[in-house]
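User: My collaborator sent over this chain with a note saying "see what the structure looks like." That's all I know about it. Can you take a look?
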Amino acid sequence: MEAGRHRHGRPVAGLQERAAAKLVEVDAKIADLTTISTALAAAVEAGRDDLTVCASSACCPIPSTDLAEENRPAGPCC
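Assistant: Without extra context I'll predict from the sequence alone. Here is the result:
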């Protein structure tokens, strides 16, 4: 990102607004990546190699296993 200058040293209009909008976008991506990282760390910690088996467990850390909810036993974690 240039330091607020366009060719010939003239200021670029709207730089602050564009920078603020980009900052919001970057912060949202960081939040998404943090959520993904947390879910992956929980999946690794669960130690399951079979997502089907994990999805059928009441304590499966994978957030996209909602489809298995109806088949999930109510018992304790594995």
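A starting point for your reply to your collaborator: The two ends are 50 Å apart (CA to CA).
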